[in-house]
Give the backbone structure.
Amino acid sequence: MNAWLLSMRAPSVFNNGSGVFNSRDAVDRDKEDSQMLKNGNNMSNHILPASSNLLGICFVILNFIKLSKIAGETIIDEVSAISIVFFLISSILSYMSIRSEDKSMLLEKTAEILFLVGLSLLAIISVMIALEIAR
């Protein structure tokens, strides 16, 4: 999150439900906010679920191609398998980035690049399937 989004959050001191204001939680939340700003965008928290969902979609596409018996006629299944590998590696690296403190930025950037390559391949697969169905 950037500083502008952090400033849009609720005030640091809040009511904990019992009518008593608790400032300890507010201090912990402010520490988390400053840590997020220090670590950058924290894209790994977004890459991991998106990458794993798209990994599942690629498996569905691969199974659809195998069941429709057009696997030998097109390269859609090969491109889908390559996309699966990119999303799998991206998921692993983004998880490692979340868990690691030392090389988290390098792992996150690598996961982001692999995710974008897999996403591009998935877009190409979509166009290829649309053309195959129209044929």
Residues 44-134 form one domain. The chain has two domains: 3-39, 44-134. The chain has a mean pLDDT of 80. Residues 104-134 form the longest helix (31 residues).
